[in-house]
Each structure stands twice: as structure tokens, then as C-alpha cells.
């Protein structure tokens, strides 16, 4: 126990130093924007409601909610979201969060598997909030989740360090074509903080190999990654999933720029590949290269706008600068984009 406490306090100081560095993302969501977001998506119980998906809640949404509450400098809302997360989702024996909570059925947990992106987001937000607001219990919870991720989700396969999407169902023997990855589950800005919470060289390798895979995965005419990829031999879109650059993958460029990745060739390829006519992003059929669903919502468009700002200095259009919540997912991306631009690239506003 004493050794654990020493590690947690060491992690606390390390995360504090990270938060004070130029690399860390500081609070950057206005009270008005956060008020509009939580009025629509934050239930009184502390759950973030995915209103485009049957009003369920999931570990991803709770992680996003915690991160946004931190960026909005709202400790009370953060604690409300964390209470629901720890009492309703952190029920697994391995320290990871069950990913799906459905208000229409009892028991509410309808899938006990975890989702590693949700776990990463939760641990990351807890670490930032614990450091900034001097809450040691947040740091302790973050460190436990980081260690659980390292123990159960970060694997070595074929000479690569990978992030499994879940603890079950994505590697052998569950999948003959495993390991299966989802490139959008790499939350790059969170990985250095995980390395402070649960020290291991594997975290840097995870980041490096994730970026190398993104550069290598150029499927179809538009040369885009797939939402779900088999790495059993060479990278290919995984069987049993649509071969598409879909809603999952749309957030990859935003994750890259928020983490300070400055690979202009990679960012330009992703931006160009995911864009249909008139600059509108879309989900893309990888086989044909044709758009499947046009996504004109400002919350989706801001991903391209943020990339244009970072790579070319282009100012955000008024539609992206103005936040009006629509559906949970694009609204979340919208606030993450605005927070990043406001903190790191105010010249684009």
C-alpha cells in the first residue's frame, strides 16, 4: 500500500508538471458553450446522453463529458459525471469501465465489455482534473485505470505495440484475423499522461506505432484508414465490419492536432480524403471511394477547419466558431475543436 501511495503521489507531481508545460491543454470552453452542452446532454444523474443512439450512455461519452467539464473549469459538473461513471460503469474486476448503459432495460449494463477509448478518456480527464484541482482521489483513480489499460489492452503483436479496442473479442482466439484495432481509439494527447500514471516504455511505442499505422493505412481510392482494421498479416479492413472511413475515424485528425502532431502530409491526406463536395466531410466507402453520408453539421466540419488552421493558418468560419448543440457526437467534437483553437491557435478565430 505504501508503494502504491508513493507511485500515485509521484504521478500527481508528474501530471502537474505536464499540465504546466506548453504541451498541456488548458481550460478553454466558455461558460455559455458548456451550459448549452450540459443542458442538452448531461442528465441529472451525471450521465452523458447519446441522443442519436437510443439515449444510451457509454464510457466514451462519460470520458468526453469529464474532459469537457475540466476544459470548462467546472468541478461540480465534473464530480457529477464522475459519480455516475464510477458507480454505474466501473463494475468490472479489472479496473476498466463497462462500455454500454441503457436506460430502457434492467440491469442497465447491457454489454460488460470495455471500450479502450472510453477508458483512456476517463483516466486522462481524471488525471488533469486531479492535478489542477488538487484532488488526490482523482489521480488515484486515474493511475489505477492507466495500469489496467497497460495490463489488459496494450499488447505487442507482430513487432508493434497496439491498443485493443476491448478486453475481449478483438484478438486470438476470439478472432482468427486478430488483432483487430480501431485507429480512432488512440487518444494521442492522453498517452503521455498514461505514461506518467503507469510508467512504461510501451506508451511511447504505442503512440509511435499508432502514427506509423496511420501513415501506412491508405485503403481505397481516397487512401484512408478504416474504422476497423485486421493486423493478422498486412493491415486490411476487418471482416464483419463495413469497409469504411466512418463516424469513428472522423475524429482522428482532431485527436492528432490536439496532441500536437504536425505531420502536414498525413493531416492533408486525411482532410482531403474525408471531404466531399463544397468542403463538407462525409463517411466514405473505402472500396469505391464514394461518400456514404454527408455530414454538414458544424461539429463535423470543425474537424477540417481545425486542420486547415493548424496546417495553413486558415481562420475558422463563423459557423464553426458559433456553438449550438445538435447531436451528442458532433457537439462533443465541436467543443473539443473550439477549446483547442481558443487555447493554442487564437489567431484562427
Can you give the helix content as a percent range? Answer: 40-55%
Q: Which fold name corresponds to the CATH topology?
A: Glycosyltransferase
Mean pLDDT equals: 94
CATH class: Mainly Alpha
What is the correct CATH architecture? Answer: Alpha/alpha barrel
Q: What is the helix tally?
A: 13
Overall geometric form: globular
Main β-sheet description: 3 strands, antiparallel
Strand content: 5-15%
Succession of helices and strands? HHEHHEEHHEEEHHEEEHHEEHHH
Note the gap between the termini.
49 Å
Strand order, main sheet: write it out: 1-2-3
The unreliable regions are 22-26
Report what the structure shows.
The chain has 349 residues and is mostly helical. It has a single domain (2-348), classed as Alpha/alpha barrel (Glycosyltransferase). 48% of the residues lie in helices and 10% in strands. Helix 5 (116-132) runs antiparallel to helix 6. The chain is globular and about 50 Å long.
Kindly list the characteristics that best describe this protein.
Glycosyltransferase; three-stranded antiparallel β-sheet; mainly alpha; 349 residues; 11 strands
Topology:
Blueprint: H1 2-20, H2 31-41, E1 57-58, H3 59-71, H4 75-89, E2 98-101, E3 109-114, H5 116-132, H6 136-152, E4 154-157, E5 160-163, E6 180-181, H7 191-197, H8 202-216, E7 229-230, E8 236-237, E9 244-245, H9 252-258, H10 264-273, E10 282-285, E11 291-294, H11 298-312, H12 318-321, H13 328-344
Antiparallel strand pairs: 1-2, 2-3, 4-5, 6-7, 7-8, 9-10, 10-11
Short description:
The protein is mainly alpha-helical.
